[in-house]
Amino acid sequence: MEGGHRLVVDAAADGTRLDRFLAGRLPGLSRSRLHALIEEGRVRVDGTVRKPSARVRAGQVVTVELPPAPPAPALVPEPLPLDVVYEDGDLLVVNKPPGLAVHPGPGHPRGTLANALLARVPELAALDPERPGIVHRLDKDTSGLLVVAKTPEALRALQGQVRARTMRRTYLVLVHGQPPPAGTIDAPIARDPRHRRRMAVVPSGRAAVTRYRVRERFAGAALVEATLLTGRTHQLRVHFKHLGHPVVGDPVYGRRGPAWGMTRQALHAWRLRLRHPRTGTALALEAPLPDDLARALETLRRAQAAAGTVGVPGARGGAAGA
Q1: Whether residue 185 sits in one domain with residue 292
Q2: Of residues 14, 90, 139, 250, which has the active-site annotation?
Q3: 139 carries an active-site annotation
Q4: pTM score, two decimals?
């Protein structure tokens, strides 16, 4: 149905509370949001408004009316500093610092990368009023390279590279424990049915593939180079948790234990390989490690040297590649 959902109760859900039935069928809506919709009379069972505790029966039709979302506030240009790695008339690549949200949202209505981009390139407002030219996403507390298109033609071409999986995005990730030396994580991802604000490996989820190799090992941790072959929400964080080696410092998917000074997920979009959207020229860009991750690695290396152990043979040191 337009502006909502029409759900038929199957035999497996017979006798389930209405609120629990909706929570299982509409994982994108929080329980508090579903309760509000029921209380507002926007949920009907066979055309009748019911209470959250009402039991649904097989064959009944549950309709959910979703009110139109309020219009997003207009982006305001803000002259925030940007670390520009590459720029020409078609595209811009920035090295995003940790803690900077890509676009406005709850808790950060201003001071985002999108605001800064509009101040630098006002023409981006014509591409997308909410995500001006932004080709792909980075979580607020993930650092590193992010691509921005400056023209409609560049935006289409770059988005096409993302869909075709020809744009290669490689991250440096500090994970707990000792993962196998290299591998491919092929595990579908969807919203976690138990925790709707998280993602999880779910058999019925969207295909998600990550290729990785260990660059350096420490006592209790490893520095991993990971390349996205797909681009699902929180893909690397979910995949390494699934592997049993969650990202150090991750407040959502991590675990208790030493974080070596990291107060956010130790995840950095380090290398980017793509084709120029107009000329087709190959571009290969890298961003140096942010200070917090560089300090964490130095702490681990010092501890390892003091213990008289060694890392992966041939692994490089240094700020950009660690």
Answers
A1: yes
A2: 139
A3: yes
A4: 0.77
